[in-house]
Each structure stands twice: as C-alpha cells, then as structure tokens.
C-alpha cells in the first residue's frame, strides 16, 4: 500500500516541505533509508543522516531547519517521535484489519460475536462465548466456555483462554499466552503425597491491557485473578492465582508473582524479579531487575537486590561488597599483628 507525503501529513496534522506527491510504501531507519521509504528524525545525534539518507520522506520536528541541501521530502510536526509512533499504530490497524470467519474453525452454536470480527482458521470457540465488535482472533486460538472478549481486542495465534475468563476492550494477547490455567494449588496428605486443590475462579483482564508472548496468568482458586486497566506485561511472565495488578503497572520479562499478592498502580517492575505470595506492594513502586521481594512494600519505594533493599542502600552496600576481599584481608592482617 502506497501513501503520498500529503496523505501522511494529513494523518499527522503536519506540514510538507518538498514534493507533496512523492510516494512511500515501507518504513526504514534514517541511516538505512531507501527510495520509497519513510523515516523520521527525533534524536539530534542522527541529524547528519538526514543529509545522506535515501529515504523519500522524513518526519521531523517543526523546529528543524536544514543546514545543507537535502533531497528528502520533509513532514514537519510538533513531535517527530510521537508522530512516527502514531503512524506505526495507523499502519498496524490497516495491516491487521482482517474480517470474516475462516474455515476450518469451530464456533459453538451457543456463542455469538459482533460486527467486523475476524476468526482465523483452526480456532476453537467454546460454549456461551461472547465476542464483541472488531475483535481479531488469529488462527489456532483456543477460547473456552463462557469467555467474554470485549470490543476491539486482539488475540494472536496460539493463545489459549480458559473457561469463564473475561477480557476487556482494546486488549492485546500475544502468541502462546495462556489465560486462566489452574493455579499452583496442592495440599499434602498424611502419606506426604500432594492432592490438587480445585481452582474454580477465573481471570479478569480490564481494558487496554497488553499481554506478552508466552506469559501465563493463572485462574483464582476462588474469586478472580485481576489485571487492571492499562497494565502492560512483557513476554514470559508468570502471574499466579488470586494476584491483583493495579492499573498502568508495567512488568518486564521473566518476572514471577506468587499467589494472592497485590501490586499497586503505576508500578515499574524490571525483568527476572521474584515476588513472594500474600504480600502487598504499594503504588508507584520501582523494582530493579533480578530483585527478590519478600516483604510488603510501601508506596513510592525503589528497590534492588535479593532480598531487596532500598535502591540507595543497595548501591552503597554493593560498593563495600566489591571491596569485601580487601576488607577481610585488612582485618586478618590487623588480627595477626595484634598477636605478634
């Protein structure tokens, strides 16, 4: 699909400097631009490339004024980075704007779906499923009984949504994600063997949530595991049964959250963080990568380490830790000299 500079400028509410009729059909980095491609300049350190790029169109900030002759047509906007992101989103909407039900796929007679829905081949839609308008379900997706998927959500290939789970509006669930598998609930008997505790709750995912590839969110033992509005989960994250994650919290890859822990709003949690069960983490908390959280965390704390310490204390302690062999040697020398 081709777009002219003027069409792009209209979408971004920008101004064209150059040929408004030049066309592009692909995107590129500014240093790798080719004829027929669109790029952008936001970071000043890439400014030299604007004079040598072979891209046909470049999105730039309104304040940008070329200091040399350039061949590329410019689209001037208030914020080049945000505008390019907006254009990527627009491009994705067009690219993924599939509709219709592909064959073979199975849709239970008791289920229903809204307008402009796409259901890819080899997908399975169970009993009493309710799918809203503009939902995209890509091939090889499993949707269990009594699931609700609200308007404008996207479920990518290979995702599994178990029975009774609820997915909000404008959610994205990436390939391999599993929503609503049984929580890790077992109890030992007198013989030391483990019996399974039935997991009869569900998972509730509110609006504007993104779930990364191969991330798993377990159903509650009773009640619901809840992912609040605007949460963003990276790939390969484990969220255990009865966890609640507050709105607009972001969590990076390979983090694990144990059962019944409550995480507040607007938190930022790095990769490979381990969080024990049955604790509460406050709002606006920041946890550095590879930290281990074994206690309740107050609002606005910044933590690092395992077990985690306040961020400043961790850095001070680490300085001493690096010098520990030297410190021990000094102590041993003092002890030796004392007895000589």
Automatic annotation (TrEMBL):
It is an enzyme of class 2 (transferase). Residues 21-89 form the UDP-3-O-[3-hydroxymyristoyl] glucosamine N-acyltransferase non-repeat region domain. Its EC number is 2.3.1.191. The active site is at 241 (proton acceptor). The keyword Repressor does not apply. GO terms for cellular component: membrane. Belongs to the transferase hexapeptide repeat family. LpxD subfamily. Homotrimer. This is UDP-3-O-acylglucosamine N-acyltransferase. It comes from Wocania arenilitoris.
